[in-house]
Amino acid sequence: MNLKDILWLSYKDLSEKRVRTTLTVIMVVIGVASIVALISQTAGISASIQSALSTLGPTSIILMSSRPTGFSVIDTSQLSTLPNVSAVVPIVSGSAYALANGQNVSVTVIGVSTAGLHQLIGNTSLYSGVLYQDALSPSTVIGYDVAFPTSMQGQQNIKVGQPMTLHFFGKSGLASTVPVSGIINPFGTSIIPVDTAAMMSLPEAQALLQRNSYNIILVKASNTSSVTPLSNLITNIYGSNARVITTQQLLQTTATIIGSITLLLGVIAGISLVVAAIGIMNIMLIAVYERTHEIGIMKSLGFKRKHILMIFLTQALLIGMIGGVVGIATGVGASYSLSAIISSASSQPSANATANSGATGRGGGVALRGGPGGGQTFIGGGGGGGPSSTSYSPVFSLGTMLAALLVAMLVSVIAGIYPAWRASQMEPIDALRQL
Amino acid sequence: MSKVSVKVVDVHKTYKSGDIEVAALRGVSFQINRGEFAAIVGPSGSGKSTLMNLLGTIDKPTQGEVYIDGIATSKMGNDQLAEFRNKKLGFIFQAFNLINGLDAEHNVMLPLVVTDMPEAEGRRKADALLERLGLGGRLHLPPTKLSGGEQQRVAVARALVNDPALILADEPTGDLDTKSGENVVKLLRSISREQSVTVVMVTHNLDITKYCDRIIYIRDGKKEKEKVVK
Predict the structure, then answer these.
(1) Which residue of B has its CA nearest to A305?
(2) Cα dihedral B94→B99→B101→B106 (10° resolution)
(3) C-alpha distances out from residue B220 to A187, B13, B44, Å
(4) I need a surface site. Which of A56, A120, B52, B206 has the fewest CB within 10 A?
């Protein structure tokens, strides 16, 4: 019996019972599609977070003050003298909402020197206007989402040259009107929430926030290998006065978390494959029972046990293969819709969170949070105020898809073993009697 | 090769149904020569179907031996028997036992699937047989689209496709009208004559035994008498 014979004898049974075959295949499709979709989501989120962190570069060490007084010039000059430090960037940040032309947008006010800005986000690509000056001059460069708020479906609300009023959280009545000097092109997901930021010079931000200290210092190590010793050194110096985080640590932590989530989602998707396997076994047992008479005929014509076994195992394999291929295609399609849904859901500004953040009067920025009494998260969004921008695309790897296909085929064949074995063990005389 | 095709020696078959033992065959012996068209007749319950299953090697005797082409069949294992059936035997059943999902051609080719014969050769053989049996225009019809007589002729073609030494026909006319039945019996006779294939037919229709060379009468699990037509 050659492969072609096995195939047509197996396929015959499947094509005869179209509805039943389709339903069984759908079970496999659901299993495979969910594996592909869920894994590609986590891979996409992981890639997005990594690219967000990578804008800071692997040599970054972030200090967030735990003291109400924050950091001062003494801190920055002291840090500059440490070995293997290539740059020290003091930053002032705070949450505010910007009011312009009747529209209310949550923003993160970031005060940083233009040179520091380059360290933070690299080269700034402006949509229009010019960058601010490194002086106490009332001007701000705003993120794309501030100028084109999502509440206006991408219509421009603020133009260069227009004034924008900033109201600060936790500082009731504190409001200032700043003219917009420039708008940054869409930046995408980043550890610095550039798209929802109002960036300005350090002295201007200090004036607006009525403080003369910094709440964040970015330290760049001269190379990646010196990051850990340098961060340990800084931790020793500041003790409980500052939280020290490196992008390397963040990458590791997110990798661990994403890894666990991937595993969890994989297990959940795997369960649907187990359910599919039980379905296949059930359907195959019914098929074997229904075909008892045919099995009897084939056995009387000289089919051996192994031939019958092969025919039914191939049937199960075909179900797994068709389900696997269709499942991968479905999973890829579903991934894109899923990531679109998740991205759009997470980019909605959370009104409640904003209110809470304002009411509790916690300091610290939105994105660059972690100042006095600040939250635990470093990345924008989450439990604090302000919008987050978790936009990501699912990431597919050939390996994942092949693995999903293989698992589907394997699971199907395993599910087919018992029914096929039962079919092969039938006595021709008993099988022939069964009609 | 010996001229004896089938040799049944003191065959007993007892079925157990719970605690009750039912003796279907109680010491049957006979032999059929090569190329003969033999009939096994008897009333229902006489044991003739049991005898047929033993000849077809899909059942084993409780006692005694069935020799086909001089080969003792009762000691063979399942897979050995399967191969034996595939090479030596052709089956024709009362209910045709064609596979509905396959067209006439593929039904005929089915026994060849488990042989080494290349597909093209098997197809040629199947088509030639169906052509010879007057089904040349119906190769690609499923059994459900064929009349009873046509279905039985497809079954005959299937029984012949592996060039068997022995064809076993179990009530081949049972599900057919008189005319189609008679045609099938005539066909079996011509096969036995022209190809010197032994044909053993089980029937309770004494009318059609007039075409046979040997008639074995079975009653109550024993051979009642045997008639050889010359």
Answers:
(1) B79
(2) -120
(3) 96, 12, 10
(4) B206
Is B74 touching A (CB cutoff 8 A)? no
* Residues pairing with A88 in the sheet: A219
The chain A residues in contact with chain B (CB within 8 A) are 1-2, 4-5, 8-9, 12-13, 15-16, 293-294, 297-307, 427-429, 432, 435
- Please report the residues numbered 157 through 196 in chain B whose beta carbons come closer than 8 angstroms to any beta carbon of chain A: 158, 162
First-to-final CA distance of chain A:
26
Q: How far apart are CA B31 and CA B134, in angstroms?
A: 33
Is the CB of A302 less than 8 angstroms away from the CB of B102? no
Q: State yes or no: pLDDT of A62 exceeds 50.
A: yes
Report the range of poorest mean pLDDT among A37-41, A108-112, A345-349, B117-121. A345-349
Instruction: Please report which confidence band the pLDDT of residue B124 belongs to, taking 50, 70 and 90 as the band edges.
Output: very high
- Residue B32's H or E segment, with its range, is strand B20-33
Residue contact B111–A301, C-beta within 8 A: yes
The DSSP letter of residue A280 is H
Task: Determine whether the interchain pair B119/A298 forms a contact, defined as Cβ–Cβ distance below 8 Å.
Answer: no
Taking only Cα atoms into account, the Rg of chain B, rounded to an integer number of angstroms, comes to 17
Among candidates B201, B173, B177, which has minimal Cα distance to B189? B201
Q: What SS3 class is residue A189?
A: coil
Give the span between the Cα atoms of A98 and A335, in whole angstroms: 35
Q: Give pLDDT, residue A365.
A: 33
